[in-house]
Design goal:
The protein has 3 domains: 84 residues, 2-Layer Sandwich (Double Stranded RNA Binding Domain), CATH 3.30.160; 115 residues, Orthogonal Bundle (DNA polymerase, domain 1); 193 residues, hpI Integrase, Chain A. The chain is α+β, with helices and mostly antiparallel strands. It is globular. α5 packs across α6, α5 crosses α7 and α10 packs across α13. Strands 1-2-3-4 form a 4-stranded antiparallel sheet, with helices on one face. The chain has a 3-stranded antiparallel sheet with strand order 5-6-7. The protein contains 17 helices and 7 strands. The protein starts with 5 loop residues before the first helix and ends in a 6-residue tail after the last helix.
Amino acid sequence: MAKLTALALKAKLVTIGKEVQTSPIRIGDERGLHLLVKANQVGAGSWVLRYTFAGKRKDMGLGAYPGVSLAEARETVEKAHQQIRRGEDPMAHRQASKQALIEAARQPAEKLITFRDACLATVEAKRGGWSNPKHAAQWMATLEQHAFPVIGGRPVAEIDLAAVLQVLHPIWPKIPETASRLRQRIEATLDLARVRGWREGDNPARWRGLLSEELPPPRRVQRVAHRPALPWQEMPHFWAALCTVDGMGAKALRFSILTAARTGEVRGMRWREVDLAAGVWSVPALRMKARRLHRVPLSDAACRLLHELQPFARSGDDLVFPSARSASPLSDMTISAVIRRMNEDAGTSAASLPRWRDHEGRAIVPHGLRSTFRDWAGETREEGREVVERALAHTIKDKVEAAYARSDLLEKRRALMQAWAFWCTDAVTP
């Protein structure tokens, strides 16, 4: 089915409006999305997603057009397909969320909402804004381990500064980075509780002007341990060894190196995002950490790798790097295991340093290879910091600078990534 454009949709509605309708008309888009235009409806319609779940065909309403635009409807369709891939029925999930809100509204005013209840509500409120479904599990894991045993059963209205410090004091000097994340999650939970009328007053988990006076900054408690990164001078040797490894995990790791992309972005990559003719991979905003579309220029080596995999693709919705056992994405562990096995094959033991290690002797990990690219670019290239940071999809923290930095510097990044590919793939005996 042809992909709609906003202009084509308006033109179709104008044409339909001039005709006499006796029955509803469907204007189709990709991935099961269509606009249902009822008889005598002029310039408007209702978005419907048709999908199959557990062998049953279902139609889910997505709102009325033009109130809900084509782009907004497609964003909802993308989220629905993500739920389906996780084994969730989008309609059932939406109905459960609505029912939870109804039940919450029906609760008598005197019923006490516990801190645990408020945390669960906060996770549900934030779930739609997270690009990775694992964020919900990460949120709950730190709370369940450190906060719930202490204050989980207390009424959220009664959580005060003493209660927050009771949670944070034991872990702040031991695991400051985790403790800092926990504080932020407690703060977000108490903020939502106030918005929903479950508590009043100031937020006792606020950092500035409150906890900052009681607790030392996390970075001063303990130096943040960065991910182990391969020295850039070693990359050609590592690449040569990696090319001898079979499997989809190794191919995904090679592609992430060539593009300096996060492995999560690579694991979720689909063929419809790739334009091999133009040499560009467009990563949707939903999968990006910064929640913005990111265009990745593809080097000749990256394009060759994709050309090898293209014959196995049946549709644009197929994963570029699917799991060997199913059509689901590769796991983080699959890609990490590639490097672990490479170190084992190199004869690494508990008594010796890993073959593929950082300057401190730690075994490297996939995410650290982005730092390898950053160090190589900083020491050998003249493109400058802004181009390199764009290549890594880092956001500009200075709001004034960000307001003027409108271009994504694609062509400058193309030259940079081509040079990086040449460096990585230079013929070296493993």
